[in-house]
Design a protein that fits this description.
1525 residues, mainly alpha
Length: 1525
């Protein structure tokens, strides 16, 4: 055969053989072992290469199909496992240069022409070469081919972005990696610089820009994985840094930028490399390498990158000027650097955005790298940098771009560099960035707020805030079209002032106050009459003055008297010289003045009046000297019998005119007038005579005025939002501001409102609540205030239940709305429903309250009057006079019930409580129309019964039993549920149905508990309930071939749940009666309930047997039934005549549970019920099968559950308590052989081979089983077996931890439980583990845990567990500690090091991980204290521990940048408190030894530590000791 195939090479070269046959022969020759050719692999590879080269050099004519198949053949060879094995075995396969050239030519062709033919297979061939080191070496040898390939690949991605295939990026990633390795080995920096700037700079920058823009990661494409995109960007940056910014190029850059003649003879080949920066910038701005619009974005995107790479490469001491010199040429590449006005005017908003983002990054690099030093620039360099930044500032301010957030951020960066850069144009800055800026977008508002905040902070540090206010006032008072200006103090600037003003000294605040007052009086007030622009300026100045007066730090009793007096004078001048003239101007008849002018002047006057009154009250309360200072109009104490006025010196007649004026429009003035009345209410409440009738009437009048002022606007409603600033209140936002004022002061107003006003408030509150989740708005944003948000906040406020009058009004409004919907759905008419359910339609709760008092326990004719209400509800539930609700009505009721659930129903008074219960029972008994979907119906009923359960847990739960018996509640509930279940079109295993059953069961359980706790005739009520359930179960069918609704599958489950709750309630009652040897009635009731439950269970299990698994209600019920049977059996001296009738059922359920237990793990309630049944099953040995061990079967089933990787860890944690109870019973019943089998299974699970097979869940299951066994009480031979196996467990745990921690990232899911079990073994093994070596194995476990490789959340979980293991060894094994202290300290030192590493302050980001580190530091400090208590053992090691601590602290200082060295103060304090305790153990020779032996840097850290120890810790303890003596 070999001879036959030896001629293949001749046939491949033959011209007579067709190409089809050649390809078949070549493929067969490659895969066949029978084809014998010398150097076969090289021959076949060369044949394919030569064929392709001949075709592309026009020496051979082939069809496109043949060419593509040749590429595929080449690709198959390059990727074949056979070739890889040959190369691994050392065989040499040579690739020719010609193959690489045609690959590069194909890439260029694809990039230029956009051809898609064969692109995938060519890329695959390229990938095969690059990914195989033995083949890629040819690219390494021919560097120019690598550069060409990389360039063509980049252009392919950039020029044909729509035709890119995913494989291209993989090849590009490999090529970049290969070139980087070549670049690092290159010894000629000139050549590398030339390659990068000539061939790679442009395509790499364009590609990087497209990657950042998400060109291939947008929705619908998915061509590029985000991680791969990040890697490629990083590689591009590394290529540019290694090529254009090498360390060897620094002299050239200095020569070019600093104009220094370098005479160094060592430059060698660098002599001819002139102007490297000019070369880079020329290539960057060179026209033609991409579309003009794209090139502008690429240049802007690349300028910041190039500057950052330059700074990272060359910034060191003395090179700051060089790094600055790079900035102007790079900035010159941007279009905004052009000085010609027409070029800047031609830029669009999007162009400005791109350019300003680049400028922002440049300025941020300057700031973060400390390139600009003000003093150095001024003294040494003649303000070179300052002049450049001034030109930047002039460009930005001459061409304001307020809609662009980056414009504000650039100005902020310049301001942070040096305030003098912007100070000459401060007025233009304030005008364009604040006063005249039109800012609407939230991102832009945040940028504006940051700029204004930096501006105020800067001038506050310079103590020049009054000057800044002067500039602001100058801009405001300029002639301008005021109507086009936005409010001066919108949310952003107001927040800045609120933050800045409290930190200012009083003198600066008063200076600013005086400036505003003077500007108002001199520039605005004289020309205010009839001038609309001046009226708008007055409103702006009033808002500014309001902000200064309200948010400045208030004076107190310790304030300097000159400041108090000046404040007093300024207050008087404000009232006398500004507020009163404005109010007088408002009250003068102005027939020819337009209404908008009057409104603006009124807004300004009333805003200042409200501000003055508020500040005057606060100063009078907080500063006694202020009140004692004489004032012209203010500060005088009122007469004892008089009430405080709205404003001193303003007559009541004038206020009446002002109120009439304010009532004409919904404006700021109306809002401020409400604030004045509210302020007067507060002042009235502060007076001693508040209890007088006159004061009470005044309070009611003010409250009524405040509420009535906005009644009309609230009735109309609004969808507008308000930013919370007084100055932005308008006709559109007034309803929101008014509602916010009323709701935020409810605690003051509610006590003085009449019932009609309270009903009005409840109506508005209910009407303005959000009706959908979408209306509530996104939670991550901070939206402005709306009516819906205010009402929602009030509804969920903890203060609402405290205001009982409003709470009751709202509750009554909700119940009335529900009753109205019920009335609309009544089939027999509203009159019949009102007659049947009279309590639902009363204006208050009088009927129910009256019913409680008038109903005696037993009527005169043997009829119980309390059953009247129950009979009416039962009639409604049966459908005798049905109420039918449609889908929309049901949705409305659900919204009302959501409001009801937010009203904290657990503390209602008895009448309200009973009313709510009756309402919810009535709602649950309604008939639902066919338009109601099953999910909506279930949600409605679930809400009703969840609220009923919530009410039954309240303090007034017993009040319901005054109008109904518990048996009545049971009958009403189940009658309506049986009727509704017939209409439910849901599956029995539907999660919503199962949740509904749980809610119903919880509700039914609560009245039974009350019945037992209060001893309310339990036998009578239980008997009635059982009789009703019996009639429900045994009710005859309605007609032959049909069945009642109670016998539907859903109805049977409801019946089963009811019987289960009855059995659970009767069980404790039977035990209690047996202890007191009482009557047999409870036992008989329980027996009857068990019989009925058993019958229903037989039906349910028979239906379940046809399905896959038992329903969760069946599992829960069968466990309760078994528990009741066991209780009955134990009460009869162990006879089994009660238990035997259901033995077959229990055994069948036991068998089914064993087979289904792993499948039940996805359903936590079902799994818990199954485990509970198995626990009870162990209590009945007569049920156990004879042929198999119950212990073994259950243990293996539980082990399968724990070993199932599909089961979440949370599920295992939830069922662990139930498994603990199960294992306790298992160990009581199981034999020693059973226990030995369990231990063997556990040891098999802990075998390290499971980790090698990546069977992590098997290991976790074994660890969990050990934990469960440790929580069980066992002794005797079982305990002896367990502790003899303990050393094997510890060794296995150590091996498991080592293997798990070798993987990256570390598997905390295994390490955490292993440490928990290890700590438990060490604690409980005190005295049982005799060999110290076995305890010492725990140190190996701890040393294997890599604390430095954990993320913060994982670190917070693992660290305490490591500490717990160490503490267990320290406390429980003192004999081991005598010889293992070095190992102990080694493990503990790792904890200390990790806390020092994690506890350092980060220069970027928030301190969100600080609580975790603090908790770990506390554990370290606590361990130090425990070691200090064992002074005799640890005294010898105390110098070593101190030396370790200071060396670690100093090592972190060396390894970490200076900005990150400092520990958080709280972390440092805890660590130092702990090490101080160890220093207490050190004697003086130890201290001298440390000072002499430590290295110089470490010695300094120790000296500082010891100094603090002597100064703070030791001195404090010496003082305490002396005091004690």
């Amino acid at each position: 055969m070999a001879a036959v195939y030896s001629g293949i090479s001749l046939k491949l070269k033959s011209k007579t053989t067709s190409w089809e046959d050649k390809l078949k022969l070549a493929r067969f020759a490659w895969i066949s072992h029978q084809c014998v050719l010398p150097n076969k692999e090289q021959v076949l590879l060369d044949w394919a290469r030569q064929s392709l080269v001949a075709f592309y050099k026009k020496k051979l004519e082939l069809t496109e199909d043949i060419v593509e198949r040749l590429w595929i053949y080449m690709d198959n060879i390059l990727h074949s496992r056979k070739l890889q094995n040959l190369l691994k075995n050392g065989k040499t396969i040579n690739l020719q240069i010609s193959l690489l050239k045609i690959i590069n030519e194909r890439m260029a062709e694809f990039a230029l022409l956009g051809s898609q033919r064969s692109i995938c297979v060519v890329l695959s061939c390229c990938q095969g070469i690059l990914s195989t080191p033995a083949l890629a070496v040819i690219y390494t040898a021919r560097q120019e081919l690598t550069v060409d390939l990389l360039s063509q690949l980049c252009w392919l991605a950039c020029r044909q972005p729509g035709a890119v295939v995913p494989q291209l990026f993989e090849v590009l990633h490999l090529t970049l990696g290969l070139y980087l390795s070549i670049q690092r080995q290159q010894v000629n920096p000139r050549r590398t610089f030339g390659e990068v700037t000539t061939h790679l700079l442009q395509p790499c920058l364009v590609l990087r820009h497209l990657l950042l823009a998400g060109t291939w990661t947008q929705a619908g494409q998915g061509l590029l994985r985000p991680a791969l995109g990040r890697d490629i960007r990083s590689q591009i940056e590394a290529v540019l840094r290694g090529g254009a910014f090498q360390a060897e190029l620094l002299p050239s850059y200095k020569e070019e930028l600093l104009e220094q003649q370098q005479g160094d003879t060592k430059m060698g080949a660098m002599k001819n490399l002139l102007a490297p920066l000019g070369t880079v910038t020329a290539r960057l701005v060179d026209a033609g390498y991409c579309e003009p619009s794209l090139q502008a974005a690429v240049v802007a995107n690349s300028v910041a990158l190039l500057y950052k790479l330059f700074v990272d490469s060359y910034l060191k001491e003395g090179n700051q000027l060089l790094c600055f010199k790079v900035l102007p040429p790079l900035f010159g590449c941007l279009r905004i650097s052009h000085r010609r006005e027409e070029q800047l005017q031609a830029l669009s908003a999007s162009d400005w955005t791109v350019e300003l983002l680049a400028l922002e990054q440049l300025l941020n690099s300057v700031a973060s790298s400390t390139i600009y030093n003000i003093a150095t620039d001024r003294i040494r360099h003649g303000e070179t940098q300052f002049r450049f930044y001034r030109r930047l500032a002039e460009t930005l301010l001459n061409h304001p771009q307020a809609p662009v957030p980056a414009w504000f951020r650039c100005l902020k960066a310049l301001l942070s560099l040096n305030h003098l850069i912007l100070e000459p144009d401060l007025d233009d800055l304030l005008a364009s960035a604040w006063i005249d800026a039109e800012v609407a977008e939230s991102r832009t508002q945040k940028a504006q707020e940051a700029l204004i905040g930096t501006l105020f902070q800067t001038f506050a540090k310079l103590r020049q805030v009054p000057r800044l206010f002067g500039e602001v006032l100058g801009v405001i008072c300029r002639p301008a079209a005021e109507a086009l200006r936005l409010p001066v103090l919108s949310a952003g600037p107001a927040a800045v002032l609120r933050e800045c003003l409290p930190d200012l000294p009083p003198s600066q605040v008063l200076d600013a106050w005086a400036l505003i007052l003077e500007s108002f009086q001199s520039l605005v007030l004289p020309d205010l009459q009839g001038d609309m622009d001046m009226a708008l300026k007055s409103l702006s100045l009033s808002s500014l003055l309001h902000c200064v007066m309200v948010h400045a730090r208030s004076l107190d009793g310790d304030s300097p008297l000159p400041v108090v007096r000046r404040t007093r004078r300024t207050m008087d001048e404000t009232l006398r010289g500004l507020v009163k003239p404005l109010l007088d101007l408002l009250c003068k008849p102005q027939p020819s003045v337009p209404e908008p002018w009057q409104q603006r002047v009124g807004d300004s006057a009333l805003l200042l009046a409200h501000t003055w009154a508020q500040v005057d009250t606060v100063l009078g309360l907080s500063c006694d000297p202020y009140r004692s200072e004489p004032g012209a109009l203010a500060g005088t104490a009122p007469e004892p019998s008089s009430l405080p006025p709205l404003l001193p010196g303003v007559e009541a007649r004038q206020w009446k005119e002002i109120e009439e004026f304010a009532a004409q429009s919904n404006s700021l003035g109306r809002y401020c007038l409400e604030q004045l009345h509210l302020q007067r209410m507060k002042n009235t409440l502060l007076q001693a005579s508040v209890q007088s009738e006159e004061a009470l009437l005044a309070l009611r009048r003010d409250a009524a005025y405040i509420l009535g002022s906005g009644r009309a606007s609230l009735t109309r409603g609004t969808t507008a939002s308000w930013d919370g600033q007084v100055g932005t209140v308008s006709a559109l936002t007034y309803p929101v501001a008014h509602w916010h004022l009323v709701m935020s002061n409810l605690t003051i107003l509610a006590s003085y409102l009449c019932p009609d006003d309270l009903r009005y408030l409840a109506d508005i509150l209910l009407r303005t609540l959000p009706t959908s989740k979408a209306q509530e708005g996104p939670a991550e944003e901070e939206p402005d205030i709306t009516l819906e948000e205010i009402s929602k906040a009030v509804l969920h406020s903890p203060l609402l239940p405290e205001m009982q009058s409003l709470h009751s009004a709202l509750l009554l409004r909700v119940t009335a709305s529900c009753a109205g919907i019920l009335c609309a759905g009544a089939q027999g008419g509203p009159a019949l429903l009102r007659q049947q359910l009279p309590w639902l339609f009363e204006g208050d709760y009088a009927v129910v309250a009256h019913g409680e008092s008038r109903f005696p326990k037993v009527g005169s004719e043997g009829v119980e009057p309390r059953g009247e209400i129950a009979q009416n509800l039962l009639s409604l539930a049966r459908g005798d006079s049905p109420v039918q609700l449609e889908g929309e009505q049901l949705e409305s009721i659900l919204r009302l019930l959501e409001v009801l659930s937010a009203l904290q129903l657990d503390s209602l008074p008895p009448p309200c409580h009973v009313h709510c219960v009756l309402l919810l029972l009535s709602l649950a008994g309604t008939v639902l129309d066919s338009s109601c979907s099953p999910s909506l119906t279930l949600r409605f009923l679930m809400t009703c019964y969840r609220l009923l359960g919530y009410l039954q847990r309240g303090k007034s739960a017993q009040s319901v039993l005054r109008v109904m018996y518990v048996s009545d509640i049971f009958e009403i509930t189940l009658t309506s549920l049986f009727k509704a279940s017939r209409r439910f079109l849901v599956d029995m295993d539907d999660p919503s149905w199962l949740e509904f059953l749980q809610v119903v069961g919880t509700f039914l359980e609560q009245p039974l508990q009350v019945l037992l706790q209060r001893k309310l005739s339990p036998e009578l009520n239980f008997g009635k309930i059982l009789a009703f359930l019996s009639s429900s179960q045994l009710r005859p069918q309605a007609a032959p071939g049909t069945r009642s609704e109670d016998q539907t599958p859903l109805g049977q489950q409801l019946l089963l749940v009811s019987l289960t709750k009855l059995c659970q309630a009767l069980g404790p009652l039977v035990k209690e009666q047996e202890q007191h040897e009482a009557l047999e009635a409870p036992r008989e009731l329980l027996q009857a309930a068990v019989v009925q439950a058993g019958a229903v269970l037989q039906l349910c299990t028979a239906r379940g047997a046809r399905g896959r698994r038992l329903p969760p209600p069946v599992l829960s019920s069968v466990a309760s039934l078994l528990e009741a049977d066991v209780a009955l059996c134990s009460g009869h001296g162990g006879t089994d005549h009660v238990l035997l009738p259901h033995a077959a059922l229990y055994q069948a359920v036991y068998s089914q549970i064993l087979s289904e237990l792993p499948d039940l793990a996805g359903d936590t309630p079902s799994l818990q019920a199954a485990v509970q049944f198995l626990t009870l099953f162990f209590l009945a040995p007569e049920l156990h099968p004879q042929k198999e061990s119950v212990f073994t079967s259950v243990f293996q089933s539980v082990r399968k559950v724990l070993a199932d990787p599909a089961i979440p860890v949370q599920v295992v944690e939830e069922i662990e308590p139930h498994l603990g109870a199960l294992f306790t019973q298992m160990l009581e019943v199981g034999t020693t052989e059973d226990f030995r089998m369990a231990l063997q299974s556990i040891l098999q699970g802990l075998d390290v081979s499971n980790t090698w097979r990546a069977d992590l869940q098997a290991v976790l299951s074994a660890v969990t089983l050990v934990k469960l066994l440790l929580n069980c009480p066992f002794g005797g031979e079982k305990a002896s077996l367990f502790w003899r196996a303990c050393p094997q467990m510890v060794m296995a745990l150590m091996l498991q931890t080592r293997e798990a921690c070798r993987e990256q990232p570390v598997a905390p899911a295994l390490v955490g439980p292993v440490l928990d079990v290890l700590a438990a073994l060490l604690r409980q093994g005190e005295g049982a583990i005799g060999n110290p070596h076995h305890v010492g194995l725990a140190f190996g476990v701890l040393l294997a845990v890599p604390l430095d490789a954990l993320r913060p959340p994982e670190y917070g979980r693992i660290f305490p567990r490591v500490h717990n293991v160490l503490f267990s060894i320290l406390q429980c094994h003192p004999k081991v500690m005598q010889k293992a202290i070095p190992s102990f300290l080694n493990c503990f030192h790792r904890l200390v090091c990790s806390v020092i590493r994690e506890g350092r302050q980060k220069d970027k980001g928030s301190a969100e991980d600080l609580p975790v580190v603090l908790e770990c530091a506390r554990l370290v400090e606590r361990m130090y204290s425990h070691m200090a208590l064992r002074a005799e053992e640890f005294r010898v090691f105390s110098p070593f521990m101190v030396a370790q601590y200071v060396m670690e602290a100093q090592k972190r200082s060396e390894c970490v940048p200076l900005s990150q060295v400092t520990l958080y103060p709280a972390v440092k304090g805890l660590l130092q408190e702990g090490i101080y305790l160890i220093l207490d153990l050190c004697i003086e020779p130890d201290i001298q030894f440390l000072r002499a032996s430590l290295q110089p840097g470490v010695r300094d850290v120790f000296k500082e530590l010891h100094s603090d120890y002597m100064k703070y810790h030791k001195a404090k303890h010496e003082g305490e000791r002396r005091y004690t003596v």
